User: Which sequence fits this backbone?
């Protein structure tokens, strides 16, 4: 069942919120994909009863009576929030993040928190302290990451919507690998308050759903100007769901010249070429754009993101909350043992890289240089958007891959983010949607749009989904 | 460049100060928690001050305005855009593992203050957050942390190395103290830590081309200790260099009990703070409109007040300067002047009141003297009810008890005797009882006149009007 059907069933009183929640909980209990880190079943039933008892108040809310799963990176008041780490295994925040608060107010019922790469660092969901998530299409494969649990949750039909975060592709890549739709909004559209920081200048929360419709409704709920987040943008509110019916006319869609040279798998390229025909068929004009700088984004990203993470993760020191190494008598040993015992290898690696690139003597060569590349990519996008409305490209280089591939070749995992990272560096919105199947596995394509063009991204995707069935496939 | 009178054993001390000033704002620099001193531990703490996962800072514009005020008062450049950076280091009372401060784009740059007719340049003043407080002596085998101070806004004022002696350093510090208290941006209370000072000290030969290696003394918390610590450090460096040693670039601590500085951390072990722009805060633009708004709301600065006191109350340079040294004193004086003679009041404040303040080492607003009881005292001198001598006694009584001078004069019967008939009777009796002195006086010992005045005063317990006594004695003794 997709989001719209589920919400319609609630609004028409065909299915109560409580029944919907119970159905989801049953599915969770039968799940062997390791999608959830914590399940809040009794709280969910209570909340569903409350919504049912206040039907009139909630019936017109954007997420009325719909069960939802949240990535375990959003602080939930009184409910554990682990960020996929041993460090926060027993951490219970005393406050709700803005995303959680907004989704609660929009009438959704939180079922639990989904598995993720530790502190959102990873592209396969294998760095989670709570074990890897399996891809619903084939349990030997990864669902992608870092929001792997959230994407798998929707793909497996446990919920029709879930939230994720995208710092270098962590929504779009798992959406592509799991065959669902996922949107990374413009930096600043969704508040970061209460979202545990990885790379503050790129982290952005966004929606997952099978289709653009569900993403639009969830984005309506999630996004709000928030005075608690200085990088939150004050802008006139758009209703993305209503805008889905708007006719944006014939668009100029940029396709990247020589994209073959980026090392994209031929099946993914095949789906990409097919989608281009669909776009032309819908009356859009394809324009080739020269964007050879795209591939340098990855180098910039893997300097800036670790730099910021090395600072953001300093607060996890065993002093105030979270894990604390036992029997330490000396403060520096307490720090060292706590952090050595409670952070996983990938997190440690990135903290080390980040610490190095910010060190005296290396800052100019790495951090400053990376910022220049970032600026270059941003400027390039600005140029590109003078001539086209959207840029279209594959989301990933490959389809879902086998577990344990990465540990042998970390560079390959970093390279996996090649096509998603540029939008994060520039702060631009991008959406990934299923655009093909091969070997009984989904393939994703993505649009990158200009700042605050989420309506255009969602509506264009919605129109494609009106004439295609990729988003309706289920494992 | 080097002034010879500041040389010590042929060495020129070169000093720069970093002054941390806690700003008086309602809330903290980046959180809505109250900014207040002296509350119970950990009662003024927001999620942000605890550095919980997921929290974000939001700049307090009040603190920004305080910074602008300071810039305007020191003829400095106010940043068009200021940027906050993260200074990364681990410490238990630094919950986030980094301090948000300003490195390359501070709110204030290139200011200047005048100290004893010498210009001392301010390199920059930047906004940053204070850390919490670690306490190691409260419990056995346990350290505890109070986060009330975590996130309190600080303005760090960094001077150029323009200071040449410990004395000058203190005068500069007093000037900064005067400016921040005049601007009402801080209470400047050093003992409570709302003003703290780090001193960078090096020595050089007057003809040397480059400064010597400097040592930094951290966290000196009184004017007196600033002078002592710097003097100790200068002597230490001279001794080192003259014995063929070298000064190490290091951080030192001043031990007030032993009156010495001790090495805390050498350069080798210095932190690499890995500064980078704080991604949670966007660069903040400061518009000309905002600067003008702040300028309009600014109180009179010390120099402006002194000039006004000279013209409005006919005070000399010295009197105006002393009365304006502290804003609270200047305000007190102006209040008193509303009803009293400005010259006489100035004389009493500068002389007697200041003497008492210095003796007891308190400030005016901590004492029992207020503008109302002090005005009454001056009025009683002016209308001849009491003499200056008696007034001193009354003032002491006011200081001790806080009572009103009118009450004191009444209950102790201290009114001055000005009645000529009464005084003449007393004076005649003195003359009659001291015939030998009268004879000596009349034969040319003029100095004995004071003796007769003293005797009359003794008889009247000092209450006789001195002017009237003089007149009467002159008249009676010339007979």
Assistant:
């Amino acid at each position: 069942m997709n989001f719209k059907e589920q919400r319609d069933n609630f609004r028409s009183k065909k299915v109560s919120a409580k029944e919907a929640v119970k159905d989801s909980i049953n599915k969770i209990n039968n799940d062997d994909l390791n999608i959830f880190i914590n399940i809040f079943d009794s709280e969910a039933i209570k909340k569903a009863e409350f919504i049912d008892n206040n039907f009139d108040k909630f019936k017109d809310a954007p997420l009325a009576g719909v069960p939802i799963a949240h990535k375990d990176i959003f602080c939930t008041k009184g409910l554990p929030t682990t960020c996929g780490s041993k460090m926060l295994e027993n951490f219970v925040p005393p406050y709700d993040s803005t995303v959680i608060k907004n989704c609660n107010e929009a009438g959704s019922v939180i079922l639990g928190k989904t598995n993720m790469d530790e502190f959102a660092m990873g592209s396969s969901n294998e760095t989670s302290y709570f074990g890897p998530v399996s891809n619903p299409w084939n349990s030997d494969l990864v669902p992608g990451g870092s929001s792997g649990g959230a994407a798998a949750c929707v793909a497996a039909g446990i919920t029709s919507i879930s939230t994720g975060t995208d710092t270098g592709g962590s929504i779009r890549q798992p959406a592509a690998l799991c065959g669902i739709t996922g949107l990374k909004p413009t930096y600043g559209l969704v508040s970061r308050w209460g979202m545990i920081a990885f790379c503050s200048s790129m982290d952005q929360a966004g929606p997952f759903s099978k289709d653009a419709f569900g993403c639009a409704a969830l984005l309506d709920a999630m996004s709000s100007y928030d005075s608690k987040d200085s990088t939150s943008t004050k802008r006139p509110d758009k209703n993305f769901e209503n805008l889905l019916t708007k006719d944006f006319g014939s668009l100029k869609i940029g396709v990247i010249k020589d994209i073959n040279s980026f090392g994209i798998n031929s099946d993914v390229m095949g789906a990409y070429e097919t989608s281009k025909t669909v776009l032309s068929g819908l009356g859009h004009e394809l324009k080739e754009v020269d964007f050879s700088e795209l591939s340098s984004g990855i180098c910039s990203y893997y300097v800036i993101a670790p730099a910021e993470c090395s600072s953001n993760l300093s607060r996890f020191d065993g002093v105030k909350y979270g894990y604390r190494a036992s029997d330490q008598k000396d403060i520096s040993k307490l720090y060292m043992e706590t952090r050595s015992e409670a952070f996983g290898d990938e997190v440690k690696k990135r903290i080390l890289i980040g610490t190095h690139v910010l060190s005296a003597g290396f800052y100019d060569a790495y951090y400053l240089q990376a910022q220049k590349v970032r600026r270059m990519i941003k400027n390039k996008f600005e140029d590109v958007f003078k001539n086209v409305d959207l840029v279209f490209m594959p989301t990933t280089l490959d389809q879902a891959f086998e577990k344990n591939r990465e540990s042998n070749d970390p560079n390959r995992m970093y390279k996996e983010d090649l096509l998603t990272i540029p939008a994060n560096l520039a702060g631009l919105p991008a959406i990934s949607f299923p655009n093909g199947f091969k070997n009984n596995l989904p393939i994703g394509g993505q649009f990158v749009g200009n700042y605050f063009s989420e309506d255009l991204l969602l509506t264009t995707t919605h129109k494609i989904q009106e004439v295609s069935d990729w988003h309706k496939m289920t494992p | 460049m080097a002034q010879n009178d500041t040389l010590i054993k042929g060495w020129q001390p070169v000093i720069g100060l970093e002054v941390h000033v806690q700003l008086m704002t309602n809330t903290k620099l980046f959180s809505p928690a109250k900014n207040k001193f002296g509350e119970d531990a950990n009662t003024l703490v927001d999620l942000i001050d605890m550095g919980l996962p997921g929290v974000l800072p939001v700049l307090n514009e009040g603190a920004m305005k305080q910074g602008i005020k300071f810039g305007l008062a020191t003829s400095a450049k106010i940043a068009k855009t200021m940027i906050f950076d993260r200074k990364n280091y681990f410490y238990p009372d630094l919950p986030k593992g980094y301090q948000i401060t300003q490195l390359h784009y501070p709110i204030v740059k290139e200011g200047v203050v005048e100290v004893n007719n010498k210009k001392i340049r301010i390199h920059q003043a930047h906004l940053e957050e204070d850390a919490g407080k670690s306490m190691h002596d409260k419990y056995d085998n346990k350290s505890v942390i109070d986060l009330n101070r975590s996130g309190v806004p600080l303005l760090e004022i960094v001077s150029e190395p323009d200071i040449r002696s410990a004395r000058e350093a203190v005068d500069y510090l007093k000037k900064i103290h005067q400016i921040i208290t005049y601007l009402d941006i801080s209470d400047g209370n050093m003992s409570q830590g709302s003003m703290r000072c780090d001193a960078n000290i090096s020595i050089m030969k007057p003809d040397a081309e480059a400064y010597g290696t400097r040592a930094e003394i951290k966290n000196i918390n009184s004017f007196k200790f600033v002078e002592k610590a710097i003097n100790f450090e200068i002597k230490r460096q001279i001794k080192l260099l003259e014995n063929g040693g070298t000064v190490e670039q290091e951080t030192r601590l001043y031990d007030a009990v032993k009156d010495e500085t001790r090495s805390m951390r050498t350069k080798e072990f210095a932190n690499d703070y890995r500064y980078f722009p704080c991604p949670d805060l966007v660069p903040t633009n400061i518009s000309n409109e905002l600067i003008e708004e702040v300028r309009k709301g600014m109180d009179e600065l010390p120099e402006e007040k002194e000039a006004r006191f000279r013209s409005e109350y006919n005070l000399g340079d010295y009197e105006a300067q002393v009365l304006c040294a502290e804003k609270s004193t200047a305000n007190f004086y102006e209040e008193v002047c509303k009803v009293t003679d400005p010259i006489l009041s100035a004389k009493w404040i500068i002389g007697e009141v200041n003497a008492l303040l210095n003796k007891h080492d308190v400030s005016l607003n901590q004492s029992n003297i207020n503008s109302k009881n002090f005005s009454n005292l001056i009025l009683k001198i002016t209308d001849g009810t009491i003499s200056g001598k008696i007034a001193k006694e009354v003032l002491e009584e006011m200081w001790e008890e806080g009572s009103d001078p009118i009450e004191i004069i009444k209950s102790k019967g201290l009114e001055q005797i000005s009645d000529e008939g009464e005084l003449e009777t007393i004076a005649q009796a003195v003359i009659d009882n001291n015939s030998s002195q009268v004879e000596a006086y009349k034969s040319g010992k003029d100095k004995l006149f004071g003796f007769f005045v003293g005797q009359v005063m003794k008889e009247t317990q000092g209450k006789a009007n001195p002017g009237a006594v003089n007149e009467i004695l002159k008249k009676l003794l010339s007979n």
Remarks:
- The longest strand of chain B covers residues 118-129.
- The domain at 420-477 of chain B is CATH 1.10.10.410 (Arc Repressor Mutant, subunit A).
